[in-house]
Amino acid sequence: FLIIVGLAVGGFFVWRQYFSPQAKLNRQNAENLQKYLDFEANYEKALTEDTFGGKTPEETLNMFIEAFQAGDVELASKYFALDTNERSEYYLTRKEWKNGLIKAKEEGKLGEIINIISNSVLDNKSSSDNTMWFVLKNKEGMVEYSTILKFNQYSGVWKIESM
Fold first, then answer.
1. Strand pairing of 157-162 and 121-122?
2. pTM for this structure?
């Protein structure tokens, strides 16, 4: 009788801990939580290690211009923010920016890009504490080009978000 009761209690315990719908849901939730924690740790690590940039937006733009003028596309691309769209093939890289800079250099647009950035001015109306807009307006006062920089709070530097 004790063996039968022991097997019944043990079987119930095993079923409840390993085979019940709730046990399966608990395991799935634990796996999902671990995936999220790994994802978050990888994201924070990448942004923390992303230290190319200046302590001010202007410094970052000047560093970018210097690198681009020297023809160092690799260094110039490091002043851009990492792609944080997890669905993108370029997630946590700057490959899209680097490819764009290479193409611009090959097309002879290096001087044009440098001229645009050099003549852009800070737009205080659009800017905030962590985002700075630099714009180049035409003769009519309309914005022709804009460059947006964002502060990387993980590494403490300003990064070019878009151009």
1. unpaired
2. 0.78
